[in-house]
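Q: How would the C-alpha coordinates look for this protein?
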Amino acid sequence: MKRHRHILHPLQSARIILGHRRTAGADLVLATVIAFTAGAANAGGFFALGQYTSHVTGYLSQLADHLVVAEWWICLVAIAAIGAFVTGAAFCSLLIHWARVHMPGRQYALSVAVQGLFLMLFATGGWFESPPGRLWSAACLCFTMGMQNATVSKISGGRLRATHATAMVTDIGIGLGRALYRRHDPEHTPRVDWHRMRLMAQLVFTFFLGGVTGALGYARVGFLFSLPLGCLLLAMALPALWRYRQSL
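A: Here is the predicted structure in C-alpha coordinate form.
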Protein backbone atom coordinates (compact mmCIF):
# COMPACT_ATOMS: atom_id res chain seq x y z
CA MET A 1 0.00 0.00 0.00
CA LYS A 2 1.14 3.50 -0.76
CA ARG A 3 1.37 5.94 2.06
CA HIS A 4 -0.18 9.30 1.38
CA ARG A 5 1.60 12.28 2.81
CA HIS A 6 -0.68 14.82 4.35
CA ILE A 7 0.37 18.32 3.38
CA LEU A 8 -1.14 21.06 5.49
CA HIS A 9 -2.80 23.96 3.73
CA PRO A 10 -1.52 27.32 5.09
CA LEU A 11 -4.93 28.01 6.64
CA GLN A 12 -4.89 24.61 8.33
CA SER A 13 -1.43 25.36 9.69
CA ALA A 14 -2.68 28.66 11.11
CA ARG A 15 -5.60 26.88 12.77
CA ILE A 16 -3.21 24.45 14.42
CA ILE A 17 -0.89 27.20 15.66
CA LEU A 18 -3.68 29.39 17.08
CA GLY A 19 -6.48 26.85 17.22
CA HIS A 20 -8.61 25.36 19.93
CA ARG A 21 -6.18 22.63 20.99
CA ARG A 22 -3.07 24.18 22.50
CA THR A 23 0.14 22.14 22.19
CA ALA A 24 3.74 22.85 23.18
CA GLY A 25 4.77 22.60 19.53
CA ALA A 26 2.14 25.09 18.38
CA ASP A 27 3.11 27.51 21.15
CA LEU A 28 6.78 27.24 20.16
CA VAL A 29 5.97 27.96 16.50
CA LEU A 30 3.87 30.95 17.53
CA ALA A 31 6.63 32.31 19.79
CA THR A 32 9.17 31.84 16.99
CA VAL A 33 7.05 33.70 14.43
CA ILE A 34 6.45 36.55 16.87
CA ALA A 35 10.19 36.76 17.64
CA PHE A 36 10.90 36.94 13.89
CA THR A 37 8.40 39.75 13.29
CA ALA A 38 9.66 41.56 16.41
CA GLY A 39 13.22 41.44 15.11
CA ALA A 40 12.10 42.70 11.71
CA ALA A 41 9.99 45.50 13.22
CA ASN A 42 12.84 46.48 15.54
CA ALA A 43 15.12 46.89 12.54
CA GLY A 44 12.35 48.89 10.89
CA GLY A 45 12.28 51.22 13.86
CA PHE A 46 15.98 51.92 13.39
CA PHE A 47 15.80 52.50 9.64
CA ALA A 48 12.58 54.51 9.78
CA LEU A 49 13.04 56.36 13.06
CA GLY A 50 16.74 56.06 13.90
CA GLN A 51 16.03 54.11 17.12
CA TYR A 52 15.59 50.51 18.22
CA THR A 53 12.07 50.55 19.56
CA SER A 54 12.41 47.36 21.63
CA HIS A 55 15.22 48.86 23.72
CA VAL A 56 13.39 50.21 26.76
CA THR A 57 16.70 50.46 28.66
CA GLY A 58 17.96 52.78 25.95
CA TYR A 59 14.86 54.96 26.21
CA LEU A 60 15.28 55.21 29.98
CA SER A 61 18.92 56.26 29.52
CA GLN A 62 17.88 58.72 26.82
CA LEU A 63 15.24 60.20 29.12
CA ALA A 64 17.75 60.65 31.96
CA ASP A 65 20.46 62.16 29.73
CA HIS A 66 18.23 64.64 27.92
CA LEU A 67 16.31 65.58 31.05
CA VAL A 68 19.57 66.92 32.49
CA VAL A 69 20.26 69.11 29.43
CA ALA A 70 16.59 70.17 29.16
CA GLU A 71 15.93 68.75 25.67
CA TRP A 72 12.22 68.39 26.29
CA TRP A 73 11.12 67.04 22.90
CA ILE A 74 13.51 64.07 23.13
CA CYS A 75 12.31 63.50 26.69
CA LEU A 76 8.73 63.45 25.43
CA VAL A 77 9.61 60.89 22.75
CA ALA A 78 11.28 58.66 25.34
CA ILE A 79 8.32 58.93 27.74
CA ALA A 80 5.86 58.19 24.91
CA ALA A 81 7.90 55.16 23.79
CA ILE A 82 8.16 53.69 27.29
CA GLY A 83 4.48 54.41 27.98
CA ALA A 84 3.43 52.80 24.69
CA PHE A 85 5.53 49.70 25.41
CA VAL A 86 4.01 49.27 28.88
CA THR A 87 0.52 49.95 27.54
CA GLY A 88 1.00 47.34 24.80
CA ALA A 89 2.11 44.73 27.33
CA ALA A 90 -0.82 45.57 29.62
CA PHE A 91 -3.34 45.49 26.76
CA CYS A 92 -1.97 42.14 25.57
CA SER A 93 -2.30 40.67 29.06
CA LEU A 94 -5.87 41.96 29.28
CA LEU A 95 -6.79 40.41 25.92
CA ILE A 96 -5.25 37.04 26.77
CA HIS A 97 -6.95 36.83 30.16
CA TRP A 98 -10.29 37.79 28.61
CA ALA A 99 -9.88 35.27 25.79
CA ARG A 100 -9.00 32.45 28.20
CA VAL A 101 -12.48 32.82 29.65
CA HIS A 102 -14.48 33.63 26.52
CA MET A 103 -12.40 31.92 23.78
CA PRO A 104 -10.85 28.83 25.43
CA GLY A 105 -7.85 27.45 23.56
CA ARG A 106 -7.66 30.52 21.30
CA GLN A 107 -6.39 32.93 23.91
CA TYR A 108 -3.52 34.21 21.75
CA ALA A 109 -5.41 34.68 18.47
CA LEU A 110 -6.96 38.05 19.35
CA SER A 111 -3.65 39.45 20.63
CA VAL A 112 -1.77 38.34 17.51
CA ALA A 113 -4.44 39.89 15.28
CA VAL A 114 -4.13 43.24 17.08
CA GLN A 115 -0.34 43.09 16.67
CA GLY A 116 -0.81 42.58 12.95
CA LEU A 117 -3.14 45.57 12.74
CA PHE A 118 -0.70 47.83 14.60
CA LEU A 119 2.16 46.79 12.32
CA MET A 120 -0.05 47.86 9.42
CA LEU A 121 -0.73 51.15 11.17
CA PHE A 122 3.03 51.64 11.49
CA ALA A 123 3.21 51.37 7.69
CA THR A 124 1.32 54.71 7.52
CA GLY A 125 4.21 56.44 9.28
CA GLY A 126 5.84 57.28 5.96
CA TRP A 127 3.04 59.75 5.31
CA PHE A 128 3.95 61.86 8.33
CA GLU A 129 7.37 63.49 8.22
CA SER A 130 6.60 66.01 10.98
CA PRO A 131 7.87 65.46 14.55
CA PRO A 132 4.34 64.55 15.79
CA GLY A 133 4.11 62.03 12.96
CA ARG A 134 7.39 60.44 13.97
CA LEU A 135 6.17 60.38 17.58
CA TRP A 136 3.03 58.53 16.44
CA SER A 137 5.15 56.02 14.50
CA ALA A 138 7.46 55.36 17.46
CA ALA A 139 4.54 54.95 19.88
CA CYS A 140 2.71 52.63 17.47
CA LEU A 141 5.74 50.37 17.06
CA CYS A 142 6.58 50.38 20.78
CA PHE A 143 2.99 49.41 21.57
CA THR A 144 3.34 46.47 19.19
CA MET A 145 6.68 45.49 20.73
CA GLY A 146 5.12 45.51 24.19
CA MET A 147 2.36 43.20 22.97
CA GLN A 148 4.84 40.85 21.30
CA ASN A 149 7.01 40.65 24.39
CA ALA A 150 4.00 39.99 26.62
CA THR A 151 2.62 37.31 24.28
CA VAL A 152 5.84 35.26 24.30
CA SER A 153 6.11 35.78 28.05
CA LYS A 154 2.57 34.40 28.50
CA ILE A 155 3.25 31.46 26.18
CA SER A 156 6.41 30.48 28.07
CA GLY A 157 5.05 31.11 31.55
CA GLY A 158 7.32 34.13 32.03
CA ARG A 159 10.53 32.28 31.11
CA LEU A 160 11.12 33.80 27.65
CA ARG A 161 10.75 37.16 25.90
CA ALA A 162 10.36 38.08 22.23
CA THR A 163 12.51 41.21 22.16
CA HIS A 164 14.59 41.05 25.35
CA ALA A 165 17.60 39.26 23.88
CA THR A 166 19.87 40.60 26.64
CA ALA A 167 18.08 38.54 29.29
CA MET A 168 18.03 35.40 27.15
CA VAL A 169 21.70 35.68 26.20
CA THR A 170 22.54 36.22 29.88
CA ASP A 171 20.59 33.09 30.84
CA ILE A 172 22.34 31.11 28.10
CA GLY A 173 25.69 32.24 29.51
CA ILE A 174 24.64 31.26 33.03
CA GLY A 175 23.55 27.86 31.78
CA LEU A 176 26.83 27.26 29.95
CA GLY A 177 28.80 28.26 33.05
CA ARG A 178 26.73 25.87 35.16
CA ALA A 179 27.29 23.07 32.66
CA LEU A 180 31.05 23.62 32.73
CA TYR A 181 31.20 23.65 36.52
CA ARG A 182 28.93 20.61 36.73
CA ARG A 183 31.62 18.59 34.96
CA HIS A 184 33.93 19.47 37.86
CA ASP A 185 31.40 19.05 40.69
CA PRO A 186 28.21 17.31 39.48
CA GLU A 187 27.09 16.42 43.00
CA HIS A 188 26.63 20.01 44.17
CA THR A 189 25.66 21.69 40.88
CA PRO A 190 22.04 21.74 39.63
CA ARG A 191 21.30 20.19 36.25
CA VAL A 192 21.13 22.46 33.22
CA ASP A 193 17.72 22.83 31.57
CA TRP A 194 18.97 22.16 28.03
CA HIS A 195 15.44 22.31 26.62
CA ARG A 196 15.03 25.89 27.84
CA MET A 197 18.55 26.70 26.60
CA ARG A 198 17.61 25.49 23.12
CA LEU A 199 14.38 27.51 23.19
CA MET A 200 16.25 30.68 24.15
CA ALA A 201 18.91 30.10 21.49
CA GLN A 202 16.17 29.53 18.90
CA LEU A 203 14.36 32.75 19.81
CA VAL A 204 17.58 34.78 19.86
CA PHE A 205 18.56 33.43 16.43
CA THR A 206 15.05 34.02 15.08
CA PHE A 207 15.06 37.60 16.39
CA PHE A 208 18.42 38.12 14.65
CA LEU A 209 17.13 36.58 11.41
CA GLY A 210 14.08 38.83 11.59
CA GLY A 211 16.39 41.79 12.11
CA VAL A 212 18.34 40.95 8.94
CA THR A 213 15.10 40.55 7.00
CA GLY A 214 13.71 43.79 8.39
CA ALA A 215 16.92 45.69 7.65
CA LEU A 216 16.82 44.57 4.02
CA GLY A 217 13.08 45.19 3.68
CA TYR A 218 12.87 48.60 5.35
CA ALA A 219 16.04 49.79 3.61
CA ARG A 220 14.42 49.07 0.25
CA VAL A 221 10.75 49.97 0.69
CA GLY A 222 10.63 51.92 3.97
CA PHE A 223 7.57 51.91 6.19
CA LEU A 224 5.58 49.80 3.74
CA PHE A 225 7.61 46.72 4.68
CA SER A 226 5.42 46.58 7.79
CA LEU A 227 2.51 45.48 5.60
CA PRO A 228 3.76 41.92 4.90
CA LEU A 229 4.77 41.57 8.57
CA GLY A 230 1.28 42.58 9.67
CA CYS A 231 -0.28 40.29 7.06
CA LEU A 232 1.77 37.36 8.37
CA LEU A 233 0.37 37.80 11.89
CA LEU A 234 -3.17 38.36 10.63
CA ALA A 235 -2.94 35.26 8.43
CA MET A 236 -2.11 33.26 11.55
CA ALA A 237 -4.82 34.76 13.75
CA LEU A 238 -7.85 35.25 11.50
CA PRO A 239 -8.57 31.56 10.72
CA ALA A 240 -8.75 30.76 14.44
CA LEU A 241 -10.99 33.79 15.07
CA TRP A 242 -13.20 32.84 12.13
CA ARG A 243 -13.58 29.28 13.37
CA TYR A 244 -14.52 30.62 16.80
CA ARG A 245 -17.16 32.89 15.23
CA GLN A 246 -18.63 29.93 13.33
CA SER A 247 -18.85 27.90 16.54
CA LEU A 248 -21.04 30.50 18.27
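The two ends are 41 Å apart (CA to CA).

Residues 24-158+209-240 form one domain.

Upvote if useful.
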